[in-house]
Prior knowledge:
Elements: H1 8-13, E1 15-17, E2 23-25, E3 28-30, H2 33-52, E4 55-58, E5 76-79, H3 86-103, H4 107-118, H5 122-139, H6 142-153, H7 158-174, H8 178-193, H9 219-225, E6 231-235, H10 239-256, H11 265-275, H12 283-296, E7 298-300, H13 304-307, H14 311-320, E8 329-331, H15 337-343, H16 350-367, H17 373-383, H18 385-390
Parallel strand pairs: 5-6, 7-8
Antiparallel strand pairs: 1-2, 2-3, 4-6
Family: Belongs to the Integrator subunit 10 family.
GO molecular function: nucleic acid binding
Subcellular location: Nucleus
Amino acid sequence: MPHRAHSPDLALSGFHLFGPLNLHLGGKKFEDEDELIGEVRDWFSKLNINFFTQGIYSLLPRPRAKKGKLDKAAPVIEPSLTIGAADKILQSFEMAVKCFELLNSTEELKYEFYQLCQKWRKETHTMMTYFQADMNIYQGNYPEAITHLQTLAASASGKTLMKLNLQWASCHLCLKQYSKACQLILEQLEGILSQPGPPVSLCSAATGTTAESDSSDGEEGSATSGAAGRRLRLMQCTASEVVPFCLQFLVASLRAKMSTYQLTDAILAHMIILTQCDWPKQEALFNEIISTIQKQGTFTYNSFFYYVHQVDILEEFAFLDTPEGGKVNLDIMPISTKALAQQRTVTRGVNKGVKEDFKAALEKQVGHIPESNDVIIRRFLQDEREELLKSFL
């Protein structure tokens, strides 16, 4: 990395380096080595309390960058509404990143910084590893972030392990390694939902800003159009925030498959089921799925009525069966319509009875008192776990 001591960006950040240990940090000058060590250690320790007990995660795949070049454009960070003084936390974090980049910009500075680090306490070294993981995610350097996260996760537990696993999954998502990403997310969901105590709500509104559901039309486009679309989430490691995040994560991963040759009816069905949790926020995504089904002309998912109870969705599928809706060939009955057709007599007409059964099933589902979305999604995540993972192979 080139020397950055006189770069305009660095000057704006408040860091200036003129010589060995002659460091201006936030307008304060340090001549004494011990004073500098104490100040930097105290500064990073405060940052650790305020920032690293929370977590920074990505919900969107990494945008395409030029081959061989790391995308280092600063992402947009969206803090949860539950985090106090989020602006100050993010400002401190961004300042720490610039400081770290400066202290590693030349071999001479890197050596001096290494010497300073040797005089820090052991817990400060661990904290620096956490910081480097967050910094690499912030910079878009996901492979290196994974290396740090794997090291930290080996000895972590509780909420710290939850934070690391969510970040680890986010890195795999941004590298478009969907299978590993969703395996980690499903493991986190299983761990949270199996904990003793009052059941955690899956489908309540998220307590912070949403990354995927609030603006389903534009987020994916910005994610693939360039670095400006890279977005991160800063949130608390609590079940009430992590569970909605995990569900949005699964939707984002499935949605990424829509523009590939690997798209299957099962992927579309899984998205439809999960959109019920955030309905009607996910209606724009659902409309996109319906358009895809209309273009295909067919759709098969025989567990449809087991998991889909949202009236708006059921009505849309009834419309798909009409000439105006495209007369889509729908095979969503618990028993395949092909099997039903084989049971009909020729004199009655192969399709007539099947259509009657389909219409009756839709009417029954609309009139049925539905289970709560929480119950449906829990059952789906448990029963269809392996099928979900197959979607990403």
